[in-house]
Design a protein that fits this description.
The protein has about 170 residues and is an alpha+beta fold. The protein contains 3 helices and 10 strands; from the N terminus they run βββββββαβββαα.
């Protein structure tokens, strides 16, 4: 498949024109499959606990695609403090969660398309409406991912992602 062809969406299973506008990680970097057998560890589509000591939430880094009006998304995991994770968990299905201030977190997903590691970039986790993944805002730095979130990317860059991730 080339980035200019159709792709089958992993979310809706439908075919779409052009390269995918989102990619995601199934788990944070600290997760190992053997942890699923532990009572103090759990991985769901939205939250993760490792050994009762490390707490993660699944969110989206959204990047505007300047020349198309689309939004490109990285599905990433962010570590939260135990207190903020508990609050997030308690409010997960509560509409009042939209009023929560952002939580500080550390990016816990390695995005291999960047020359510099994306692990442990500082983030702010913005809770959104029930049923929507949190918005992950990177602290403004000169890391290429933070720059792209701030300034946006082009459809050419989206194709580069597809070429790197789909072709290896």
């Amino acid at each position: 498949m080339t980035a200019d062809d159709h792709h089958t969406c992993a979310c809706c299973a439908e075919r779409h024109d052009g390269p995918p506008l989102s990619y995601g990680a199934p788990a944070p970097v600290g997760w190992k499959p053997r942890y699923s057998r532990r009572r103090d560890s759990e991985l769901t589509a939205d939250q993760c606990v490792v050994k009762g000591r490390h707490f993660y939430v699944h969110g989206l880094i959204e990047i505007p695609v300047r020349d198309s009006g689309d939004t490109f998304s990285w599905g990433v995991w962010v570590s939260l403090s135990e207190q903020n994770f508990a609050r997030t968990h308690d409010l997960w299905d509560d509409p009042v969660r939209e009023q929560e201030p952002p939580y500080f977190g550390w990016l816990s997903t390695e995005l291999p398309v960047y020359p510099d590691s994306t692990l442990l970039l500082k983030t702010h986790v913005h809770t959104r409406a029930v049923g929507r993944r949190p918005l992950i805002e990177l602290e403004p730095t000169d890391h290429p991912l933070a720059v792209e979130q701030r300034d946006g990317i082009t459809t050419g860059r989206v194709r580069e992602f597809a070429d790197l991730l789909l072709r290896g």
